[in-house]
Amino acid sequence: MTTFLGMPAVPPVAPAGVGNLRGTEKFQQAAVHELANEQLRRNLNFATHKIRDKRQHVVDEMPDWQRLREAGSRIKREVLANLPDLLEQLEEKVTEHGGQVHWARDAAEANEIVRGIVADHGAKEVLKIKSMATQEIGLNEYLEEHGIHAQETDLAELIVQLGHDKPSHILVPAIHRNRSEVRDIFLKEMPGVDPDLDDNPAHLAEASRRFLREKFLTSKIAISGANFGIAETGTLSIFESEGNGRMNLTLPDTLVTVMGIEKLLPRFNDLEVFTQLLPRSSTGERMNPYTSLWTGVTPGDGPQEFHLVLLDNGRTHALADDMGREALKCIRCSACLNVCPVYEHAGGHAYGSTYPGPIGAILSPLLTGMEDSHDPNSSLPYASSLCGACYEVCPVKIDIPSILVELRDQKVNTVGSGLEKPMLKTVASAMSSGKRWHAAQKAASIGGRIVAGPDKKITKLPGLLGGWTDARDFPAPAKHSAREWFKTADAKRELAAEQARSNAVQADLTQRPGNQDAQRDADWERRPMPAGFPSPAASSEQSEERSSTQGSTK
């Protein structure tokens, strides 16, 4: 049996204008806007530190943690090496157990497949489990355009939906909101909410529970993603902490699952490795409170109609990249976001994509390609300090820093470097000649002091240099360079004075009685030297003589 996997000779990228993989402005500009939001930065700082501290605590309990990471990485590499065969095996097993498998080349096809299934049942509302794949393709917006309301049931996703907002974190979509902001959103947007609702977390959770309970009992169709699909058995899995996933997987009559083609495991036994890696890396728990597994349709139990939509949307394009394909090992734990200093300050919205943080900085450009220098995703590989913290915490050992460097190289080769290359050529030309370099320094010093004025601060620079002065003042250049200063009489006097002070301190130390260390140092200075070599003491005396000829301290 053969199946068309949407893998032509030149794998397609995710289409522009469909879904949520590309923002509207480059990361650098978007980050400036987000950095101005001090409340956002406080919220992110508090949440990311708390999550990573919890993660570290449960990871430290595991003496074989590094072996687990290696096992997880090896399993995911096996998946990528055998992806076509494993996908066909999964399709066969799901079909064998009463499910229906659909293949979607891109976001547009996936959206239309899901819409068609919902329309066939005449439903005007569907329930949603938190799903990165459905966010990626913009499913909620597409269904809304066709008169179908997709009701989020995950608490954080519900907050984002009611607030007409966008997710900013892979695991905690509303991480940029604090509980006071959540209360205000509920009071304004949630039907039937108690007007006296306060910001106590338990009371906020109870309000959302009351709101969603009726939805669970009346809706006939649910839409989910999947953490893993097991090729050997056709089993799908969801790991979650709230129980809304379990409700969606058992109560509705019809279940539609949208899953990226890379989210496979070859064997059922492989799941055991990831039941240890994922909860510890994501929520800092030893295990998720709710781990749900289902295989096709079971008569009389749970949904009686099951559809699996296998999504490409640029994944085969990433798979064709020898280094970039490593990004497809990602299990969406978000550990890299919680340790990233860039994400902690800029937040998820600055990335413009469903996938923020370090993993988003490599995954989004790999899925969409980098079209030109104006493409927002061409700026994402530079949204990193390359500190390496993301690699250290990744449960499947994705070398994100190396992939970022590779993508930067690809960007320069395919899109170009803009002004960077001619600017560096100009600098190289100046530095290759002492006269040119000295002249450039002089010109910059004089021009800088003129621009700075009496305040000796440059507050506004043009062009690329404005990126510095937009956030901080630039001090006026010094009148002399360091090389020029060393040639002045003032410099010679200061150096002589410093040498005299050093000699005085050394003499004082050697004269103190009982100072064995100082005496040993003095003996070492007076040690005999081979013929032809001046003794250290003689060298020191000669140095003092030279210093004395240059003038005294007064």
Written account of the structure:
The chain is α/β, with parallel strands linked by helices. Among the domains are: about 60-325, NagB/RpiA/CoA transferase-like (Rossmann fold), CATH 3.40.50; about 430-485, no CATH class; about 490-550, no CATH class. Helix content is about 50%, strand content about 10%. The protein is built from 25 helices and twelve strands. It has helices spanning about 25-35, 40-60, 65-80, 85-95, 105-120, 130-135, 140-145, 155-160, 180-190, 200-220, 245-250, 270-280, 315-320, 335-340, 340-345, 355-370, 390-395, 400-415, 420-430, 435-450, 465-470, 480-485, 490-510, 515-525, 535-550; strands at about 100-105, 125-130, 150, 220-225, 230, 235-240, 255-260, 265, 290-295, 305-310, 455-460, 475. Strands 1-10-7-4-2-3 form a six-stranded parallel β-sheet, sandwiched between helices. Strands 8-5-6-9 form a four-stranded mixed β-sheet. The chain has a two-stranded antiparallel ribbon with strand order 11-12. Helix 3 crosses helix 12, helix 9 packs across helix 10 (about 200-220) and helix 16 packs parallel to helix 18 (about 400-415). The longest helix has 23 residues, at about 40-60. It is elongated.
Task: Specify the overall morphology.
Answer: elongated
Radius of gyration from the alpha-carbon trace, in angstroms: 32 Å
- Helix fraction, binned, reads 40-55%
Arithmetic mean of pLDDT:
88
Low-confidence runs:
1-9, 546-554
CATH fold topology of one domain: Rossmann fold
What distance lies between the first and last C-alpha atoms, to the nearest angstrom?
96 Å
Per DSSP E runs of 2 or more residues, the count of β-strands stands at 12
What would you call the structural class? alpha/beta
Number of helices: 25
* Overall CATH architecture of one domain: 3-Layer(aba) Sandwich
Q: What's the arrangement of strands in the largest beta sheet?
A: 1-10-7-4-2-3
Largest sheet: 6 strands, parallel
Could you name the CATH class of one domain?
Alpha Beta
Strand fraction equals 5-15%
